Amino acid sequence: MLLWDSNPEPRGPSPLLKAGTEVNLAAAAFVQSPAHLAAGGGHAFFLLWQFQTGANLDQQDWLGETPIHKAAKVGSLECLTLLVASQASIDLRNNNGQTAEDLALAFGFLECAQFLMRVKQIQSKKAEAQCDSSLHDSDESIHTDATTRQKRACEMNRPIGKKRRKSNGKGVSSKHNIKV
Question: Is the whole model's pTM more than 0.85, yes or no?
Answer without folding.
Answer: no
